[in-house]
Amino acid sequence: MKLRILLVDDNAEKIGLIENSISLISRDLAVQCVIDTVQDIVSAKRRLHDCDYDIAIIDIQVPRRVGQVPDKTGGLVLLQELEESDLLRKPAYILGITAYINEIPESHAGLLDRYFSLVSFSRESTSWSQQLHKAFGDIVKSLTQQRRGENSQSTEAALAIVCALGSPELRSVLDLPIDWSILDERADCIDVHEGAIESPSGRHRVVAAAALEPGMAASAALCARVIAEFRPRYLAMTGIAGGMKAATKLGDVIAADVVWDYTSGKIVQKRRRQEFLPEPRTIDLDATVKGQLRRLAETPGVLARIREEFKGPKPDHDLELIFGPMFTGSAVIANSKFAATLGDMHRKIKGVDMEAYSVACATKYCARSASAPIPIILKSVSDFADADKNDDFQSYASYTSATVLYEWAKRFL
Fold first, then answer.
1. Locate the Response regulatory domain: which residues (predicted)?
2. How far apart are CA 159 and CA 129, in angstroms?
């Protein structure tokens, strides 16, 4: 089990003693503890606004701001704000720690009774460490029972990954370092796999499935079903796409910031000629996710490592993560002249596939808008939508798109 802990204390020596004690407790209880330490109330509130914590350990006497003298009731002020504010994420368990237990005002007794397990700290004794150990033991038992109950009752997932093909696309997802298992209670034509990903905010359930055939209709049906059953926060599609030769290289991952259904339009007769008048339908994707992916792409060594760790045939150039429009249509394109006409619709087009628009569309028209997932389209270039189309780099492209999604999830899920 992994526990995320917020420690609010302004005394460096005391912080060190508490962290050492937690390290011993972690070993004894066979849990992993990740500790974020802050030294004032303002910094603690920022953390509690942005992150979920299993445990908060709060010194009673702590400054309101960095550099100020400790407030005798600073920790209690933080506790009061946790109780009253909807903007702060309340930890599952809160422990108070103080060397001045007799100085706690009577007026705060009710607040302490509701939230604190109070640890009396002393540099001259180890009894406080024993109190901390017991409190952690109780918390671990309680969280273990809660998580077992959640796993058995909840079907919700943080991330759902859909693919158009079982091989090589879904296979590359299932090759990620995730302990996948098949939901064996299902009795239908589609296997859904489940696992978990650890990120700084905790452990998150992930599900993955592939459609039985490529194309918008099959992917739209799969996405609608996944959304209804698992209520994911993010719905991602990985796999292969045709790239625009002037804008991409084989294996590059395209992060679609807008998806188009380029087949939407009207067929008319003009001077004995049949002509197609396009009316592209577009859906813009999430700006926050785009920013996170940009930061991932700019992290030194990440893309190089992803390329290096692939053991099969791969192109001779560096891997890149490219942002731009993705066009979706109902047919495989193996004609460079036709692919070139797509550039007339959008000069910055990066790639073309048969499913991306349906994924974004499924999230847009989700029956419960409050539960609508955020779509993420990451597809890698396996060919250039021309007559030279082949399968040589499909496995590499499936791998790079799946692995970039995994690296994003580890950091930002």
1. 4-129
2. 39
Domain boundaries, the chain: 2-153, 159-412
Residue type, 389: K
- Tell me which CATH homologous superfamily contains domain 2-153: Response regulator (3.40.50.2300)
User: How far is the C-alpha of 161 from the C-alpha of 204, rounded, in Å?
Assistant: 13
Going from the C-alpha of 143 to that of each of 93, 150, 398, the distances in angstroms are 10, 10, 37
Quick one: CA dihedral 351, 353, 355, 361, positive or negative?
positive
pLDDT tens digit sequence for 161-172:
999 989 999 999
- Residue that the structure tokens 């506790």 belong to: 79
Residue range 209-227: mean pLDDT, rounded: 89
Tens of pLDDT, residue by residue over 231-262, are: 899 999 999 998 877 788 999 999 998 887 87
Helix (H) or strand (E) run with residue 399 in it: helix 394-412
Angle 307-312-314 (CA atoms, 0-180°, nearest 5)? 55
168 prior amide bond cis, ω within 30: yes
Q: What burial class does residue 150 get, using C-beta atoms within 10 Å of its C-beta: 0-12 exposed, 13-18 middle, 19+ buried?
A: exposed
Half-sphere exposure of 176 (CA within 13 A, CB side): 32
CA nearest to 77, candidates 64, 65, 94, 95:
64
* H helical segments located in 202-355: 216-230, 287-298, 302-308, 336-345
Angle subtended at Cα 20 by Cα 51 and Cα 29, rounded to the nearest 5 degrees: 75
Whose structure tokens read 């504010």?
85
Averaged pLDDT for residues 275-296: 80
Angle between helix 74-84 and 41-50 (nearest 10): 30
**CATH code of domain 159-412:** 3.40.50.1580
E-only strand ranges, 216-280:
234-243, 253-261, 265-270, 273-278
Residue type, 244: M
By residue count, the chain amounts to: 413
| 180: amino acid identity, one letter | W
Q: Which residues are CB-neighbours of 129 under 8 A, at least 6 positions away?
A: 17, 21, 24
